[in-house]
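Late entry, evening session. Most of the bench is empty. Finally got around to the prediction I had been postponing all week. Sequence below, unchanged from the version circulated by S.P.
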Amino acid sequence: MATIGFEEKLWSAADKLRNNMDAAEYKHVVLGLIFLKYVSDTFHEKWEELMKLNPDFAEDRDAYMAEGIFWVPAEARWSYIAERAKLPEIGHIVDNALDAIEKENDSLKGVLPKNYSRPELDKRILGEIIDLFSNIDVGGSIAREKDVLGRVYEYFLGQFAQKEGKGGGEFYTPKSVVSLLVEMIQPYKGYVYDPCCGSGGMFVQSLKFVEEHSGNKFDISVYGQESNPTTWKLAKMNLAIRGIENNLGAKNADTFHEDLHPALKADYILANPPFNDSDWGQPQLVDDPRWKFGTPPAGNANYAWLSHMIDKMGQNAKAAVVLANGSLSTNTSNEGEIRKNIISADLVDAIIALPDKLFYTTGIPVSVWVLNRKKKHPGKTLFIDGRKLGTMVSRRLRDLTTEDIRKIADTYINWQNETRYEDIQGFCKQASFEDIQQNDYILTPGRYVGIKEAEDDGEPFEEKMERLTAELAEQFAKSKELEEEIRKQLRGIGYEI
C-alpha cells in the first residue's frame, strides 16, 4: 500500500470500521495505534540488525536509545499485540503496551492514550483496526525514506478534523495555510515557536521546508505550547513520529496564564490562534509586562496573541500569524491604539488577505500578519489581496493550491529581495507609513491594492449598451410571462393576488 494515494485507501478502510463511534473519540483510538505500530516497527528493524551482529545486544536498551529509537518491551511489540487481536482482553493488552512504553521512555510519559479497555469501545472493531495496520509497514528505513508513517498520521489528522468540523479546527490548521506561512518566513535555522501549537502541524511543515531546501533538520529547535491536554498529546506523538526534537513543555498549559517558555526569544514564530477569543482571562493580566503596546481588551484576545508573540521575537525574528479580519480595522476597546503603536514601531512587514472557507472552525475570511524585527524596507508594508484565490474542495471548505501559495509567497519574497516585484492593481501594493497613517492605521489590503482593472473586450461602448439593454428587455418579458403563469396557477386553486 506504500504508494501515492495509499493514505486515502487506508483512511477509507479505517473509517468503515468506525461504525457508530464519534469521530472525536475514534481519533484517539486510531492515532494511538498508528503511533504504537510506528514505535514497534522502528524498534524491530534495529532488533533484526543487532540479532545479525550479536544476539546478546538485541535486548540491550542502550543500543536503541543511543540512536534515538524508543525502547519497546516484549509485551508492547506489535507482533505480540497482533497475535492477540481477536482476544476479548485486547483492550487491556493495548493499554498495558502503551503503559510499558511510557515507563521505559521519559519523553513519552503522560502522552500516550491508555483507554482501550473501556467497556464502550467495541473490542471486535479494535481487533479489526489492529489487523488493518498489521498489513502496512510504517517503520523501518524504507518506510522512513517514503515518510509513510508521517504521511498517514498527518492525513488522518486532517480527515478527523474534517469529520469533527468546528471541533477539528481546535487541533488542526489546514495544510495549505500552514504551507503558506512557512513558505513566506522560511524557517531555515534557529528557534521556531508556536504558542498555540495544536497537533504540531507548523513544526512538521517547517521541517519539511528545511529538508526540501537541502537544509539540516538539526539546525532548527522547536518550542511550543498547547492548552488542551488531548491535543498536546497528539502534538507530542506527531513530532515523535517525525523524529522532531521538541520542547512543548512538560504538560499542557494556557499560554497567557502559564507561559512555559518565559525566557525564550524565537527566530521564527508561526501561529494560528483561536479567532476572536472572548474568554481569555484578561482581568488577571491587566498589568502584564507583555502589553507593551497597550492592554488588550477583555472581550477579544487577537491583540493579546499579537503582543505575546512580539514579546517572544528575537532581535532578527520574523512571525507569520493568522488572525480574524477584525484585527485589521477595529478601533474599539483600545485595539485601534494597539494597532497604531505596533505599526509605529515598524513591525508590520506584510498583510495578506485570504479567502473565506479555509478553516473548519469558521467560514469567515482571515488575514496573515507578517511581523519582522529586521525589515528590509523600513517604513514600508506590503499588502496582498488573495481573497479571490483558492479552490472549493467541498461545499464548506476551500483549499489554497500549490500555485496560490507560490503566487503569494513569491510576491512577498520578491518584494523583500527587490527582484521581479511590481505593484499589481487589485493584488499587491507597497505602502508607506504615511499611506497607512492617512488610512487611520487600518490595514485592510483592499484599501491599498485597489480593484483589479476590467479587461477590455474590444466591444465599442455604444454597441455593448445596445446588446445589454436588449438582453435586459428580453429577461423582463420572460419575467412577466412567468408572473402571469404563477397568477393563473394560483387562481386555479382558489387564490388571487
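Two things to note before I forget:
The radius of gyration is 27 Å.
The chain has a mean pLDDT of 89.
Will write this up properly tomorrow.
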